[in-house]
Amino acid sequence: MTKADAAVKTAKRRRKGSQFSGRDRTVFTLMVAVPTFFHVMLVWVPTLASIVFSFTDWKGFRFSDLNFVGFLNYQQIFTVFEKDFFQGVINNLTLLVFLFLGPTVLGMFLAYLLDKELKGGRIYQSIFYTPVVLSLAVVGFIWQSVMYSTENGLATELFGAGGEVNWLGDQSFLIPFSDNYGISKNFIAILIAIAWRHTGYIMVLYLAGMKSVDQALRESAALDGCNEWQAFRHVLFPTLKPINVVVAVITVIEALRAFDIIYVLNTPRRTQVLSILTTNNLLGEGGGNVGRGSAYAVLLFLLCIGFVIWYVTNHYRNSEFSK
Amino acid sequence: MTASNIAGTSRKLTPARVVLHVFLIAFAIIWLVPLFGAFYSSFRPFSETVNDGYFSLPDTFTLDNYRNAWEQGDILGRYWNTALVLVPALFLTLFFSSMVAFACSRFSWRFNIAFLVLFTSGNLLPQQIIVQPLFQMYNRIPLPEFLSNSERLNGSVWGLIFIHVAFQSGFCTFVLSNYMKLLPKELNEAAMVDGASVWRQYWSVIMPLTRPALAALATLEFTWIYNDFFWAVVLEQQGADRPITSSLANLGGEFFTDDNLIAAASVYVALPTLVVYLALQKHFIAGLTLGSTKG
Question: Are A127 and B28 in contact (CB under 8 A)?
């Protein structure tokens, strides 16, 4: 047997049963184990710990002060703090619907226009995308001062009828659902700032998707006498399905775990979303209530996780990985 | 590009195109106004903005805000704090996730998909479910004084680096595994026939071919880690050690009276990401789309 034959034989053996040599085996194991150790220890172990903490009355100092209290925290959230919690859920859902109707539709439309290879298309693209690369701290500051400043922000000058408008502080409901629940005015002001930042992101995703659509497909649509809308609705849109899925996932996840920009713009910290409720309970002015904060976090987690698992398993089942 | 050259007629200026441009210009202006307002105010004294409004003609044009923000905000020190976290976090994230992606996409073994699911879903979790136990854990892990002033993982750059690596490696593993999966299978087989070790297959065969994806992810992760606000605020309680992005929140408190000073500081904060974005726009957009179109 020549040397090459032997090598082919080993290669075949390895391919079949992942029969690495001893050293390769160690290297391979380390390549997976070290990153996994970090990821599991710092992401998944804390997640499980939060679930455990949510059943305790822990205040976060010594473990000896920790008592298990069953579902007390959850019970309190749904009875004592129900107003905070349900208003938070309403705000998160409002954000979700708004992201779909506002930035997603607008972003898709802008992508559609820019896909026509206009003169200066790159410049428009850069302008719409710039807010996405800015830190949310910067975005928050810009809207707080330039746009929403009570005395001389642009929004005040344009719509304030010469007076002052407290855009970010007015918690009265613009769209009331009942006496206690609704969509507050300042939350709508925050939504507009979010749209300004989010649209460019969606636009770029769709633009890339549209660029990869076969040119022949469009030409045949034009030859068949489709008008602009028909061509979009029946030819272009169905081919964008993978992008639609990704945008849907991004939108749902971002709407549920939205934090930074709302945290920055919401200075009296009264207009809640779930992430801020959690953060305030965990690290709030009262020194923190780990038990209740964790219960909020778990509720937020439960809203996210079903969707995450559905998407991720679907992705790996339908992709190259299953072939 | 080529499509437009072939269909060269599409660039003719028809009335429909004019409407289209007017529409786009209108939106571009809406998008630029907040940016311009902040940028413009950073060159004016705050009293003037208060009296005349953000969009008024200037009486005074000054660089004072930039000078003051640079000194009072210790911008140079903050840039340094950021670099101390950002550079190692970026390299470690790409290194770790490329190894996992390589092992899970180039070899079929019992749990390879399970590991990818673990990493991908980890990145989609809300940070709030992680933060409290992480904080408690960091608080109980001692570090020698020469590694951290706080003598604990909490409040040290290491703590921040580790959580960025752990959290961001989820997304990068997802993107890189999708990318590596599409490289021809024969690459590994040929390398094995040549007797290349696993490490050589990773480092000398697959990694060079993954360069476009790595470049795209590097630009994307640069801005994400740079712009991080949440981890830094929670895990870095000492204001002086905070990276630049999260220190802007403190500046707001310290100089509450002077928004134009904060505007100048915001320009300092935004500058690195804007430069990276404008210089590497192509990679940037490739990075966003790699995660979505492949797979």
Answer: yes
Q: What is the gyration radius of the CA atoms in chain B, in angstroms?
A: 24
Q: A50 vs B130: CB contact, 8 Å cut-off?
A: yes
pLDDT tens track, chain A, 323 positions: 455 555 555 555 545 445 578 889 999 999 999 999 999 999 999 999 999 999 999 887 788 888 899 999 999 999 988 888 999 999 999 999 999 999 999 999 999 999 887 888 889 999 999 999 998 888 988 998 889 988 888 888 888 777 788 888 888 888 888 888 999 888 999 999 999 999 999 998 898 888 878 778 888 888 888 888 888 888 888 888 888 888 888 899 889 988 888 888 876 666 788 988 888 888 765 557 889 999 999 999 998 888 888 888 888 887 777 66
Interface of A with B in 162-221 (CB under 8 A): 196, 200-201, 204-205, 207-209, 212, 215
Domain boundaries, chain A: 3-53, 83-278+294-322
With 70 as the cut, is the pLDDT of residue B255 above it?
no
- Which chain A residues touch B276 with a CB distance below 8 Å? 133
pLDDT at A265: 84
Reported ipTM: the value is 0.87
Q: What is the pLDDT of residue A11?
A: 53
Structural domains of chain B, ranges and CATH numbers in brackets? 12-67 (no CATH), 73-293 (1.10.3720.10)
B residues 136-195 lying closer than 8 A (beta carbon) to A:
136-137, 162-163, 165-167, 169-170, 173, 177-178, 181-182, 189, 192-195
> How far apart are alpha carbons B223 and B273 in whole angstroms?
6
Instruction: Please name the residue ranges forming H helices in A82-240.
Output: 82-99, 105-114, 121-133, 136-142, 154-159, 185-211, 215-223, 228-230, 237-239
CATH 1.10.3720.10 fits A83-278+294-322, yes or no: yes
Query: What is the DSSP-derived secondary structure letter of residue B74?
Result: T
Task: Supply angle C-alpha B114, B120, B122, rounded to 5.
Answer: 100
Mutate which of A314, A321, A322, A323 to disrupt the B interface (most B C-beta within 10 Å)?
A321
Cβ within 8 Å of residue A188, ≥6 positions away: A174
Which one of A21, A135, A298 has the shortest CB-CB distance to B129?
A298
Residues 293-312 of A with CB under 8 A from B: 293-294, 296-298, 300-301, 304-305, 308-309, 311-312
Rounded to the nearest angstrom, the minimum Cα separation between B146 and chain A is 23
In chain A, residues 76-115 whose CB comes closer than 8 Å to chain B? 110, 113-114
Q: How far is B284 from chain A (nearest CA, A)?
A: 10
Two structure tokens written together for B175: 């993107």
pLDDT at A7: 56
Amino acid at B44: R
Task: Using a CB–CB cutoff of 8 Å, tell me whether B29 touches chain A.
Answer: no
